[in-house]
Design a protein that fits this description.
alpha+beta; 40% helix
Length: 425
């Protein structure tokens, strides 16, 4: 969340940032409450000072064997005034915290202002394949080879769930293992394997709660949430901790199944692997010092890009505009892969710098020998990468005229030597 003092001292900047994110923040209400809170604190401090002075006078009168009755009576009046004001301050504090929880992070000044139409392509990689036949989409390919059973997945769970089979399950597992090996062996991330059920404090720490509650799967009886991304449990590893400066930067990667209700997906393309409620993803999370976070952001994107370079899947990098970045992000790049069967660019990775927004919510700080007091770390995360749309791009890019599907060479060590899907397995 944003620092209240920062908001107070940078009202115009905050207003502009909220407007750029199309956010309806209760800023005026917050500022009015903050002013009232500070006035109350001054009154309470003055009364407490009077109360302390009265206590000292009573003690002095008792030592002099004089009657302190009048002074005690006046002190009780002061104490009752303090008792009346403190609950009011507490109520205001709670209201301020509630409003702060709904105020998004401010967009970085470098990003375009506007909605998705203002997103800009900053670079691209690879040449789009030219086909001498009409390419099929991934749904037709998956059904022809019986590697994803959409109908039975619906029978088991409902719409927009997946059942990988045979070579499809093998390819999914190969992708996950390939990405984990790449990020741990070549990019320096430490692998963790986190829980997929987390408490409300964890979801609040990374910004999913309370703003995006409707998109989350909630187990009411246990008050636990199914994670929408491994970002949530991995970031919260260090919640309410003070790290040593020497520990930074910390890089973690994690595979997890992810769960999203997709409550706002009505009218969007939900066919096949495009938008599902349960999917697999390898996540990249960084904890860094503030002065290095934007350099680390660029490296994070490069780490995710490497996945597609090795898979030989053409992609492009979009710098998202202010109205298209997430609630918690200050800056975000999306990596989009091209799906020739659908003839669409598909988001397959999103890499964000949250600056200290998540760290304030989760209370993750660091200290060093030359620091007067602990400071908040900066957190970053990116998909490294999500499998569904990566699978779409592989199936559609590597399809053959005879109906078969080649498997990217980098995955052969993970498929037991299987180099192509040519028949049901």
């Amino acid at each position: 969340m944003l620092d209240l003092r920062f908001i107070r001292e940078n009202v115009l900047r905050v207003r502009e940032g909220l407007a750029a994110k199309n956010a309806v923040g209760r800023l005026d209400e917050l500022l009015a409450l903050d002013e009232k809170r500070r006035e109350l604190i001054v009154k309470i401090d003055e009364l407490k000072a009077k109360k302390n002075a009265a206590n000292e006078e009573i003690t002095s009168l008792l030592k002099q064997k004089q009657d302190p009755k009048d002074k005690i009576a006046s002190m009780k009046v002061i104490a009752s005034q303090v008792d009346a004001l403190e609950p009011e301050q507490k109520a205001i504090d709670e209201k301020i915290h509630e409003i702060l929880m709904f105020i998004p992070n401010l967009p970085h000044p470098s990003i375009p202002v506007g909605g998705p139409d203002k997103n800009r392509v900053v670079r691209s990689w690879g040449d789009l394949r030219k086909f001498d036949f009409k390419p099929k989409d991934h749904v037709a390919l998956a059904e022809a080879h019986d590697i994803v059973d959409f109908k039975r997945a619906t029978k088991i769970s409902g719409a927009n769930f997946l059942l990988y089979k045979g070579a499809g399950a093998l390819l999914e597992r190969a992708l996950i293992n390939f990405m984990l090996d790449l990020h741990t062996r070549e990019h320096g991330y430490v692998e963790v394997f986190p829980p997929v059920l987390v408490n409300a404090a964890s979801m609040t720490g990374t910004g999913q709660l309370p703003k995006m509650k409707d998109d989350m799967y909630h187990l009411a009886e246990d008050d636990l949430y199914l994670i929408p991304t491994a970002e949530v449990p991995v970031t919260n590893i260090y919640r309410d901790e003070i790290l040593e400066e020497a520990q930074l930067p910390i890089f973690h990667t994690a595979y997890s199944t992810c769960f999203r209700r997709e409550a706002g997906s009505y009218g969007k393309d939900t066919r096949g692997l495009m938008r599902v409620h349960q999917f697999n993803k390898v996540e990249l999370v960084k904890f860094v010092k503030p002065e290095t976070s934007y350099e680390e952001h660029e490296t994070l994107v490069a780490n995710a890009e490497k996945v597609f370079q090795l898979l030989k899947i053409p992609y492009r990098i979009l710098e998202l505009a202010s109205g298209d970045i997430s609630f918690s992000a200050a800056k975000c790049y999306d990596i989009e892969v091209y799906a020739p069967g659908l003839d669409k660019w598909l988001e397959a990775s999103s890499c964000s710098n949250f600056e200290d927004f998540q760290a304030r919510r989760a209370n993750i700080r660091y200290k060093g020998k030359d620091m007067k007091k602990p400071a908040f770390v900066h957190t970053l995360n990116g998909s490294g990468v999500a499998t569904p749309r990566t699978m779409v791009a592989i199936l559609e890019t590597y399809q053959r005229a005879d109906g078969g599907i080649d498997i990217p060479e980098v995955l052969w060590p993970y498929t037991g030597g299987l180099k192509a899907i040519t028949a049901r397995v």
